[in-house]
């Protein structure tokens, strides 16, 4: 079987806080003015990605993994996770603030939801002037204080508010209270999980006058009440894989591509490329494929040699 770079049909999600930048900035085929997310690569139940290109067009990612687990996932990833695809890749457009939320760790998520936890990272692709995010507490807190501030609708006063710009990266371990602020387009890499505990949603109502469900009690023992450092500083050496995040769940590098680089892989893990700026080509065997800003491509582990060529900013993600 000949393996090749895989792209998938975007799974588009309307959100009360969404907008139209996934179309205007990333050229996604949205039809709604409140599209908040494009799930690029997913095996979440009910939202499984389908191949958009090549011989396997129309096949689901889960089908491919079941048929060729080591060749798609990699020998090490297959040994660790079986036939589960352990990561979820998204682009987000926040026209308004997202809710203030938290994700449980692996232990709590397994116990309550039979799911992975949700460690994640954000790469800021586009930021309006004065755009910001919320990440963690300003100072060490506790459950009683948190509940008191939440009850009085003053929770924002004890949470850390950080102004951001394009190219910033934030790494959020499970338990970190957070919210993406208005005016941001974000590339998100996370564990395969859709478990979110919503703490506060600014008392927003949808078109029918309904507020969204909160999960205050569930969140109490999921929250990390300590002050956390989430921003990641990283180098940007041209035509190199610059390490940004290295955690047990994924490794992310930043590649400022300006010309050509040859890539060699071991077969132990799949690799995903997210093009966050510019355009590039991938050459493998006698074939050549082109990618642009907003594209996401899965390189099966069985593809161990190829060339990247162009002028682009690329996120390179795999499992160490």
Supply the key terms.
6-stranded antiparallel β-sheet, mainly beta, Jelly Rolls, 320 residues, 2 domains
Walk me through the structure.
Residues 8-115 form the Phosphomannose isomerase type I catalytic domain. One of its GO terms (molecular function) is isomerase activity. It comes from Flavobacterium gawalongense. Residues 245-318 form the Mannose-6-phosphate isomerase cupin domain. Helices cover 14% and strands 39% of the residues. The protein has 320 residues and is mainly beta. The chain has 2 domains: 11-219, Jelly Rolls, CATH 2.60.120; 242-318, Jelly Rolls (Sandwich). Strands 1-2-5-12-7-10 form a 6-stranded antiparallel sheet, with no helix packed on it. Strand 14 and strand 15 (251-264) form a beta hairpin. The protein is globular, with a radius of gyration of 20 Å. It starts with 10 loop residues before the first strand and ends with a strand.
Helix proportion: 10-25%
CATH architecture label name of the largest domain = Sandwich
Q: H/E order of the elements? A: EHEEEHHHEEHEEHEEEEEHEEEEEE
Shape by Cα distribution: globular
The fourth-level CATH homologous superfamily of the largest domain is Jelly Rolls
Content-based structural category: mainly beta
Residue fraction in strands:
35-45%
State the CATH class of the largest domain.
Mainly Beta
Uncertain stretches = none
Kindly state the number of beta strands.
Answer: 19
CATH topology value of the largest domain: Jelly Rolls
Report, as a whole number of angstroms, the end-to-end distance. Answer: 25 Å
Count of DSSP H/I helices: 7
Structural domain count: 2
Largest sheet: 6 strands, antiparallel
| Gyration radius from CA atoms, angstroms | 20 Å
The main sheet orders its strands as 1-2-5-12-7-10
Mean pLDDT: 96
GO molecular function: isomerase activity
Protein name: Phosphohexomutase
Domain Mannose-6-phosphate isomerase cupin: 245-318
Keywords: Isomerase, Metal-binding, Zinc
């Amino acid at each position: 079987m000949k393996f090749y770079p895989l792209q998938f049909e975007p799974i588009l999600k309307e959100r009360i806080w969404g907008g139209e930048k996934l179309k205007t900035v990333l050229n996604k085929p949205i039809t709604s003015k409140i599209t908040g997310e494009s799930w690029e690569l997913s095996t979440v139940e009910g939202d499984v990605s389908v191949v958009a290109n090549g011989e396997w067009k129309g096949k689901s990612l889960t089908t491919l993994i079941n048929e060729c687990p080591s060749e798609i996932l990699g020998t090490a990833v297959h040994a660790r996770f079986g036939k589960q695809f352990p990561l979820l890749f998204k682009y987000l457009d926040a026209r308004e603030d997202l809710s203030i939320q938290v994700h449980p760790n692996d232990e709590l998520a397994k116990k309550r939801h039979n799911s992975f936890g949700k460690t994640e990272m954000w790469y800021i692709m586009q930021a309006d002037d004065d755009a910001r995010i919320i990440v963690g507490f300003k100072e060490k807190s506790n459950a009683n204080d948190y509940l008191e501030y939440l009850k009085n609708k003053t929770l924002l006063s004890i949470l850390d508010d950080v102004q951001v710009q394009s190219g910033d990266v934030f790494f959020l371990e499970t338990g970190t209270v957070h919210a993406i602020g208005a005016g941001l387009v974000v590339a998100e890499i996370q564990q395969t999980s859709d478990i979110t505990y919503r703490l506060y949603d600014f008392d927003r109502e949808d078109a029918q006058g309904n507020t969204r469900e909160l999960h205050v009690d569930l969140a109490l023992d999921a929250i990390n009440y300590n002050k956390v450092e989430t921003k990641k500083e990283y180098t940007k050496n041209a035509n190199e894989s610059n390490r940004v995040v290295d955690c047990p769940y994924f490794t992310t590098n930043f590649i400022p591509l300006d010309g050509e680089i040859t890539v060699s892989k071991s077969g132990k893990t799949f690799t995903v490329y997210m093009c966050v700026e510019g355009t590039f080509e991938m050459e493998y065997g006698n074939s050549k494929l082109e990618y642009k800003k907003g594209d996401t491509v899965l390189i099966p582990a069985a593809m161990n040699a190829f060339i990247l060529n162009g002028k682009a900013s690329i996120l390179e993600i795999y499992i160490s």
